[in-house]
Amino acid sequence: MKTATVPIEETWNLSDLFEDDGAFEAAKRNLAQQLPELDRYHGRLGESASSLADALESTLDTYKAFARLRCYASLRSDADTRVAAHQAMRQEVELLATEISGLLAYMRPEILALDPAQVESYLAEEPRLEPHAFYLRDLMRQREHVLGPAEESILAQSSLLTRSPSSLFQILQNVDLPRPDVELPDGQTVTLTPVEFHRCRASQERETRQVVFPAFFGAYSRFKDSLGHNLYAAVKTHMFRARVRDYDSCLAAALDDDNVPTAVYRNLIRQVRESLPLMHRYFRARAKTLRVERLEYSDLYCPLSEAPPIRYNTDEARRIVGASATPIGAEYARELDRAFDERWIDWHPSPGKRSGAYATGWAYDVHPYVLLNYTGEYESVSTLAHEMGHAMHSFFSNRTQPYARADYSIFVAEVASTLNEALLSRHVLQQATGDDERLYLLGTYLDGMRGTLFRQTMFAEFELAIHELAEDGVVLTGEKLNEVYLELLRAYHGHDEGVVHIGEEYAVEWAAIPHFYFNFYVYQYATGIVAATALASRILEGADGAQERYLGFLRSGGSNHPLNLLRDAGVDLESAEPYGAAFDRVRHCIDSLEALLDDEAS
């Protein structure tokens, strides 16, 4: 599964999950044999408090066993995607998930058929229901949007159809869309796959960037009508679900699972819109650094300077990430060391290994696992910090909360990961020894904020705009989507103010963004980095109780709604305050960048 050059201590220890594939298969067969028992509580949830407790405990025991299987199968298949047996292992677990969902489709509507007062009396009567109290009360909160058992079953089956637009996009994006061959200024010919485009757009050679940008997006322009029809189909599936569940809008329906008011979404857009001059100021500094009079869209992805010739082996990466996380406290540092020592991480690229990086806390009774494709560059160190933020969040949550409350929302997940990145950025900037290194690190941080806070908010505004148009009866053609996207792209980049020139050929960029099929997902990247930046500032400033409140946040898992968890940690995303802290940090880094450029000029 691994190449001989990868040290064994830098791969996962999967025996913590199952001793081997045979033990996994035995556990899977055992779970499959037990699944028919899930139906024994059907029609009995309202009999008594103990009956409800029995049903919920049995259900969660099943999900916990399933999650462990899912974790093992996913890690095995991702370690080498070429191994057919491991892919089959994963697919078999996914089939189990469908079977479990079908068997338990009765639970939500049956619980919701109970009177809320009856549920409260059960909670007071049966101590075993205490771990499920938040779930039950939150379900009662949403009861007006939940249908009867037959309708819920039909709605569950509708996913066979509603997933089609996203699946079709993935096939077009990864397989069928023709990718242009272009000749670069150095004479090399490349095929502009997404991976090759991302490599070329970071080139220090402006001519290279100017060649690949229009060619890459031109491929999407030729299919904008089909891709537009497909995205419109995805929007209509969101409308279908919102209307069937009697929500006022797609936005309200998408945010309601986390009990997030639509005002939070709109506040994000408003706060970022008001701070666009700050980002435009960075763009002007970037133009000065790159020695161009006015930026083109193709000038936004290359580093401000060549990466410093520093390579970090895994021991050095561990040391730097650990040192940057020291302000969180001794307990956090101790558990972070444990993660490295106990081989939670699969570090290195290898043949067939899944690309990218992730952390999973599915194995509740074991520990989180982290997949990396570590290359030794600073970006890889930053990815390590990010993923260990997720891993530590899952670890503290799983250790503190009962299984019923351990899983947390994506809304708060990005806070734990980006806070680690924020701490790392400040740590390495303090340790930087030369102007070239400072320039690189400042540019990396500011480009990260542009991509995560400003760009994701632009995506969020685009999502909102096209859903509202569709809800008003406007047909979303490729041309209409181009029109909406280009207007936002130019506003966010200061096109009319002469900051960044955005040509019409980039209006079709929406067609290359997979997240637009995820139903109001991307805004959480932006709110997450705002909350993380505000919390990191409080921790580093030594604000009273900041460290303890943040650790409390990590331990809280899914025990409350995300906004309440963040308020307890010290961040109120319904206000302007955390945005002010995030923009202050951006402003400070722009000040430092401009001072560095002035020093170089003098």
How is the main sheet built? 3 strands, mixed
Our count of helices gives 26
| Strands, total number | 7
Indicate the mean pLDDT: 92
CATH class call of the domain at 8-157 = Mainly Alpha
Strand content: under 5%
Classified in CATH, the superfamily of the domain at 8-157 is: Oligopeptidase f, N-terminal domain
Task: Provide a descriptive summary of the structure in words.
Helix content is 63%, strand content 3%. It has a domain at 8-157: Up-down Bundle (Butyryl-CoA Dehydrogenase, subunit A, domain 3), CATH 1.20.140.70. The strands form three sheets. Strands 4-6-5 form a three-stranded mixed beta sheet, with helices on both faces. It has a two-stranded antiparallel sheet with strand order 1-2. A two-stranded parallel ribbon has the order 3-7. Residues 1-8 have low confidence and may be disordered. The relative contact order is 0.11. With 602 residues, it is an all-alpha fold. A hairpin with a 5-residue loop joins strand 1 and strand 2 (189-191).
Give the helix/strand layout.
Blueprint: H1 21-34, H2 49-79, H3 84-103, H4 107-112, H5 116-125, H6 133-141, H7 149-157, H8 159-162, H9 164-176, E1 181-183, E2 189-191, H10 194-201, H11 206-221, H12 224-244, H13 250-256, H14 262-274, H15 276-290, E3 295-296, H16 314-324, H17 330-341, E4 345-346, E5 358-360, E6 369-371, H18 378-400, H19 403-406, H20 410-431, H21 435-471, H22 478-492, E7 500-501, H23 523-540, H24 546-555, H25 562-569, H26 577-601
Parallel strand pairs: 3-7, 4-6
Antiparallel strand pairs: 1-2, 5-6
Helix pairs in contact: 1-2, 2-3, 5-6, 9-12, 10-11, 12-13, 12-21, 14-21, 15-21, 15-26, 16-18, 16-20, 18-20, 20-23, 21-22, 21-23, 21-26, 23-26, 24-25
